[in-house]
Amino acid sequence: MRSTTPSSIILLALCAIPALSAPIQHTLAPRTENSLNWTDCSAYPWLRSKDLQCGNITVPVDWAAPSGETFTLRMVRLPRPANATRPRVGSLFINPGGPGGSGVTAVANIASGFEPVSEEILHSFDLIGVDPRGVQQSVESICDSAIWAERVSLFPKTQEEYDRLVDKNRRLGESCRAQMGSVVDHLDTISAARDHEAVRAALGEDMNWLGISYGSMLGAQYAQLFPGKIRTMVFDGVLQHSRSEWDNARIETTAYAASLRKFFDWAETNDESALKGRDVEKFWYELLAKARQTPIQNPWCNYTNIPPQFRDCREDVNEEDILFNTQGLLLTTRQQNRVFLAEALVKASQGNADDFASSLPMSFNPSLFAGITIGCQDWAPTDSSFEDLQAKMRMVEEAASLTKGASQTWTLQASCIGWPNAPKNPPAKLNIKTQDPILLVNSLRDPSTSYEWAVGMQDEIEKSVLLTRNGDGHTSWSLSGATRVAIDHYLITEELPAPGTVLDS
């Protein structure tokens, strides 16, 4: 599900599934006492598992006005099997990231076997997947696809380009409001954390949380608000919300650049690499220059007579597309992924850049709109002029010339300039005081959620243990290695790895 386009801030990839129904609209209704009923999901065969149960709960659009408008929060549950060989521990909430990632999708993928999970976890917990507000079933984010498809630079070089960027952002935000109503003002992560507390309270159990990538930020907001409700919490691929804009842009783009340089080293020497024996860094800069001068064709999306709002990708690829989308291709460092990236770069140099094409909302990527509608409620750009943005651009390009400052963080910062509704949850340092420690997990060389963020979050959580994977790639639980075993062991037993533990897989 991970999108690598400049129009998305998705931080983890799981395969998407069709919606359970038409987009849910919020309604004017007084809030009633929450109740949670589970039914079978047989009406939705695309969920691919007869074991899943579907549920929903009513929550307020604005938690500060609980008697006002409400909407339906949708979720699924995968109960532990009837023949489970281990004692039941409780319910485990899984959030796959984003903002925009679907918990329904994540748990449905586990139920269908698409995402392998250990038998110990499956036999110990009922797995809960909630679609956060603004995501798919829970008041899906809907905006104007034609405005989204307009190509503007996220690195404007002139006042005119900057004005086009700000104008597009403003019009896109206004289109979201026109289609979604007032709920678009309440898609922030604090509100989503309160939604999850409503589900936990309805279940009547302590919180067990596995937050992957952006799911770590959602979990941290929950822990700040409800520290006494937690049994176990894992933040895998840690996102820190309290840094300055400049810090965040620098931190992520330098992590991306370090991963890209390591790929170059592999590509120059590995027998399976289509770039073996070449100066790959030189090749990289030449490819960027070529795409900057003349966008490279994307034959896969060479549509004719189809209006922009009905296209699912762009018919060519420019320098920014390559810069932003290569980051996503580095998230997984398995050999076959490296081989693919090397071949994609060679193919692009020969005039076919379809592997770096940016997705548009008509492709089945429901997270595209959610990423921006949620993200602009959590990150408030402080750039108020072309000169301000230019100064920050120069700083990030100097920090990471290999990536020229590109990152998912930059995407969001640039895409929220001019956004019409004010953020509800601007960056702020947390002071989390839970009874038991929270487990932080990060790879040393994550190209998306930098190890620096994980270290920084230790200062915001009074009790935490940082488990380090001495490896590459984004997040660790999806890998079948020692780090995943340690995470599972903690979730089941509450036994933490020793502080300072470093694992190699």
From TrEMBL:
Q: Which Pfam families did the record assign?
A: Abhydrolase_1, Abhydrolase_4
Specify the superkingdom.
Eukaryota
Domain Peptidase S33 tripeptidyl aminopeptidase-like C-terminal span(s) in chain numbering: 408-502
Its organism's taxonomic lineage begins at: Eukaryota, Fungi, Dikarya, Ascomycota, Pezizomycotina
- Name this polypeptide is given: TAP-like protein-domain-containing protein
AB hydrolase-1 domain sequence ranges: 92-251
Report whether Hydrolase shows up as a keyword of the record. yes
In the UniProt record, the signal sequence range is 1-21
Q: Which organism is it from?
A: Paraphoma chrysanthemicola
> What family classification does the UniProt entry report for this protein?
Belongs to the peptidase S33 family.
UniProt keyword terms in alphabetical order: Hydrolase, Signal
Question: PANTHER family this protein is in?
Answer: 2-SUCCINYL-6-HYDROXY-2,4-CYCLOHEXADIENE-1-CARBOXYLATE SYNTHASE, AB HYDROLASE-1 DOMAIN-CONTAINING PROTEIN
Provide the GO MF annotations for this entry: hydrolase activity
Alphabetical list of InterPro entries matching this protein:
AB_hydrolase_1 (IPR000073), AB_hydrolase_fold (IPR029058), Pept_S33_TAP-like_C (IPR013595), Serine_prot/Carboxylest_S33 (IPR051601)
